[in-house]
């Protein structure tokens, strides 16, 4: 039997916030090739893996703000407006300030982390603070307690089972979207 350990999000990955380059500087966006994700991009997104959002930024835009290029398999988690959209980066990309993304440690399966954050969405949302709209701070995200199987193979098996269910749901959505009446 596999041992599950209690830890914090910061024990299983690096929590990273995003930022928005100034929209008044055209060089930040014009002919940009770096995928830049906002919570709005995830509002209509139903898959698990995301490649790009509505807009891209340029190298100049990347350097002109505090966002950073997140590696493939980073788990994106919207931390405001609203809290709880989750996706996995299928390539290097960056996000706006509406995210507290988690770059998983080597001993953490990114797909397991995706399901772990989805499962804990309501609990994380309840930890948000703010008057105009709720937001989860980086510090709050880092300190969220979770239970994780110590063995990465067990994490992978759990994620595989959940993933096969999501694969079927996604296939059914594709069929339904292509069905002509």
From TrEMBL:
<keyword id="KW-0540">Nuclease</keyword>
<comment type="similarity">
    <text>Belongs to the type-I restriction system S methylase family.</text>
</comment>
<dbReference type="GO" id="GO:0004519">
    <property type="term" value="F:endonuclease activity"/>
</dbReference>
<dbReference type="GO" id="GO:0003677">
    <property type="term" value="F:DNA binding"/>
</dbReference>
<protein>
    <submittedName>
        <fullName>Restriction endonuclease subunit S</fullName>
    </submittedName>
</protein>
<dbReference type="InterPro" id="IPR052021">
    <property type="entry name" value="Type-I_RS_S_subunit"/>
</dbReference>
<keyword id="KW-0255">Endonuclease</keyword>
<dbReference type="GO" id="GO:0009307">
    <property type="term" value="P:DNA restriction-modification system"/>
</dbReference>
<keyword id="KW-0378">Hydrolase</keyword>
<dbReference type="Pfam" id="PF01420">
    <property type="entry name" value="Methylase_S"/>
</dbReference>
<dbReference type="InterPro" id="IPR044946">
    <property type="entry name" value="Restrct_endonuc_typeI_TRD_sf"/>
</dbReference>
<dbReference type="InterPro" id="IPR000055">
    <property type="entry name" value="Restrct_endonuc_typeI_TRD"/>
</dbReference>
<keyword id="KW-0238">DNA-binding</keyword>
<keyword id="KW-0680">Restriction system</keyword>
């Amino acid at each position: 039997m596999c041992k599950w350990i209690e830890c914090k999000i910061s024990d299983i990955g690096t929590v990273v916030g995003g930022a928005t380059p100034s929209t008044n500087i055209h060089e930040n966006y014009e002919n940009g090739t770096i995928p830049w994700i906002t919570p709005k991009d995830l509002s209509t997104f139903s898959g698990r893996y995301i490649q790009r959002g509505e807009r891209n930024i340029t190298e100049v835009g990347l350097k002109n703000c505090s966002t950073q290029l997140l590696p493939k398999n980073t788990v994106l988690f919207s931390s405001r407006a609203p809290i709880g959209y989750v996706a996995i980066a299928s390539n290097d990309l960056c996000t706006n300030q509406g995210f507290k993304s988690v770059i998983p440690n080597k001993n953490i399966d990114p797909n397991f982390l995706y399901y772990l954050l989805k499962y804990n969405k309501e609990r994380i949302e309840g930890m948000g603070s703010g008057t105009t709209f709720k937001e989860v701070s980086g510090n709050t995200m880092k300190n969220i307690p979770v239970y994780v199987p110590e063995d990465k193979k067990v994490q992978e098996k759990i994620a595989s089972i959940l993933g096969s269910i999501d694969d079927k749901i996604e296939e059914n959505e594709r069929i339904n979207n292509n069905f002509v009446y």
